[in-house]
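Q: How would the structure tokens look for this protein?
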Amino acid sequence: MYSSAGVLTLSRWDTARWLWSYYASRLPEFCSGWAASVQITVGEKEDRATRLMIRKNGFDWDTVDEIFVQNIYRANLESVRRVLDLGGNIGLAALYFARTYPDAHICTVEPIPENVAVLERNVELNHAPVHVVRAAAGAQDGKIRFELSEDPRAHSSVGSKGLANPKTFEANVLSVPSLMQLIGWEECDLLKIDIEGGEVEVLGGHPPWLKKVRNIIGEGHAGSGYTIEVCRRDLEPMGFEVELLRESTGSFLFLARCSG
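A: Here is the predicted structure in token form.
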């Protein structure tokens, strides 16, 4: 935790807030009267500081660590001008891409209202060139119902036939071609995808729009039946070279570059 704070180049007070965001999620009774979120500045000693709002749920803390400490989305890519971020969560990946590719236009797609509220605040804090779309990404346009969980990692899709109840809500679903049409893009330089199993449908079936994408970085989820072998079967016939970046229990991270 302290080492991560050093990598993030946090100030003394932001280090305290960073540690709070970790321990508050693990000692909820002790911290129940405190604010539900904190703000920290990543890279304060660098030219491009980024202000982040994170919640005391333990998950946001882990995501900051993955994206800004472990640099899971670091890739040697050139001429990245358009980034489509499927599974925007609270905007941390979008802000990372804004730091990494300062000349790029970024569109981030997220359906969960609680996440979108924090995402939009993070975009506002940094005046980032990020277009936010409140929707889920899918193979086809339509509607889908999500069941919400107290654990933000456990929100799950119950499909368009899911019964309405206080723990569910309905979201619009947009395909990649519809998203690109919405934002006026003919091509995409970098597609990031982390949609908790939805990659099976979005990347499967050799959709023609993949020919308009230069690079893909994302997460595959074994629980949905998506493995690195399936990923290669989906993307290699479409002209991509697929590299396994890392693998952990239940998921893997991959980078696919268009070889054409």
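Residues 158 and 164 are 10 Å apart (CA to CA).

The chain has two domains: 1-71, 72-258.

Upvote if useful.
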